[in-house]
């Protein structure tokens, strides 16, 4: 994903979380809205999967290439050291200068430059194979070195299958972004029906949808209300009069609260048939506090 898509994905997440924390009775009052919401959330899941595939393919290619290059440079330095040792005994200063390579030096070289240097080491060792026998340089060693050089050279061009995988994932990501944006546009028009009857919900919804602010917004608190059997409690009241908070839990038993001031706040959680409970929740700037409240 590019920078713009990452920002849009954050907005998708905020909108989804806001709707998940909304009393389902409000959304049920909008014909067709729940279906759009379900499809939108499914698209978000597909987007994450395609992004993971795209990232994994690119990362896998980069890691494979890096490992081959490290293997190649390790072999190159080992063989060059043996050549330099032979040249030292032979008092061949020119050969010492030509064949003195360090691991750090080879790893700093550009890919194609590194290949040329490794080939020079390989070819020089081949030409001195008889003389280097006392230094444990063998034909098998040099054949293996040549194989590693060839493997690294081939890795410089991405295999077509990897290119195709990334292209397909990228195309699917673009398609899903387009489809999700169209769904949100439909949901926007439906939400406006509640502008007079549910003004707080409508305001919160469009705040979540504001793309230009998506990167800087976050939810301060997530409250999940459950019963003693670990079942979600829907339509439980979450209230803090001092903060002006009065919300109902969603079908998943959740309430998401945004822009709550730093500090510790007491929330009353109540539901008919259960004993009300007061929960003290600490809020830290830039972080979301997740709390599970059990009513009995």
Salient structural properties:
296 residues, 4-stranded antiparallel sheet, alpha+beta, elongated, single chain, 3-stranded mixed sheet
Description:
It is a single chain. This protein is α+β, with helices and mostly antiparallel strands. The protein is 58% helix and 15% strand. A four-stranded antiparallel β-sheet has the order 3-2-5-6, with no helix packed on it. It has a three-stranded mixed β-sheet with strand order 4-1-7. Helix 1 (3-20) crosses helix 3 (33-90), helix 1 packs antiparallel against helix 9 (199-209) and helix 3 (33-90) packs antiparallel against helix 4.
Compressed to H and E, one letter per element, the order equals HHHHHHHHHEEEEEEE
The shape is elongated
Q: Which stretches of 5+ consecutive residues score pLDDT under 50? A: none
Tally of DSSP β-strands: 7
Mean pLDDT: 88
Q: What class do helices, strands and sheet pairing give?
A: alpha+beta
Radius of gyration of CA atoms, rounded to a whole number: 32 Å
- What share of residues are in beta strands? 5-15%
Helical residue percent band: 55-70%
């Amino acid at each position: 994903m590019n920078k713009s898509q990452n920002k849009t994905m954050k907005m998708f997440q905020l909108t989804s979380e806001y709707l998940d924390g909304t009393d389902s009775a409000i959304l049920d009052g909008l014909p067709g809205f729940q279906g759009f919401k379900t499809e939108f959330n499914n698209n978000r899941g597909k987007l994450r999967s395609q992004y993971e595939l795209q990232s994994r393919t690119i990362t896998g290619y980069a890691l494979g290439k890096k490992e081959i290059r490290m293997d190649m440079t390790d072999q190159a330095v080992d063989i060059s050291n043996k050549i330099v040792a032979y040249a030292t005994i032979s008092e061949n200063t020119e050969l010492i200068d030509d064949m003195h390579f360090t691991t750090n030096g080879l790893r700093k070289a550009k890919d194609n430059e590194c290949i040329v240097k490794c080939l020079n080491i390989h070819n020089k060792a081949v030409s001195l194979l008889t003389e280097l026998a006392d230094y444990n340089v063998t034909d098998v060693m040099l054949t293996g070195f040549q194989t590693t050089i060839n493997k690294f050279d081939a890795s410089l061009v991405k295999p077509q299958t990897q290119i195709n995988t990334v292209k397909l994932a990228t195309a699917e990501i673009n398609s899903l972004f387009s489809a999700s944006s169209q769904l949100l546009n439909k949901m926007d028009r439906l939400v406006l029906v509640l502008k007079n009857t549910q003004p707080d919900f409508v305001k919160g919804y469009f705040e979540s949808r504001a793309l230009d602010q998506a990167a800087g917004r976050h939810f301060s608190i997530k409250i999940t209300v459950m019963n003693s059997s670990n079942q979600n409690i829907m339509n439980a009241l979450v209230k803090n009069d001092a903060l002006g908070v009065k919300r109902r839990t969603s079908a998943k038993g959740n309430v998401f609260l945004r822009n709550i001031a730093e500090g510790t706040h007491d929330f009353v959680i109540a539901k008919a048939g259960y004993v009300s409970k007061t929960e003290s929740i600490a809020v830290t700037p830039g972080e979301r506090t997740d709390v599970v409240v059990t009513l009995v």
